[in-house]
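sorry for the late reply, my laptop died twice this morning and i had to redo everyting from scratch. anyway the thing you sent over, i finally got around to it. pasting the sequence first so we're on the same page, its 66 residues, then the predicted structure underneath. double check i copied it right bc i was rushing
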Amino acid sequence: MTMKKAESPAIREYRIAFEEYFKDKPKNAKESKKQMEEFVYWYNNVRKQSDTGKTPSEMYKEIYGK
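ok and here's the structure:
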């Protein structure tokens, strides 16, 4: 019997966001780089985190003032 290692909250949040963003996207190798760039922007600047209600960019600005 194998025990599944628990995910950290940050990894879990990223995995959920990744699955949410790509659930309806076509799987085309040519567009994968563009889709990943769009995902990174969406993840950092648009999608609110489930635990804080803020985007990673908003949290960064609060912490570092930049």
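The CA atoms of residues 38 and 62 lie 24 Å apart.
thats about all i looked at so far, will dig more tmrw
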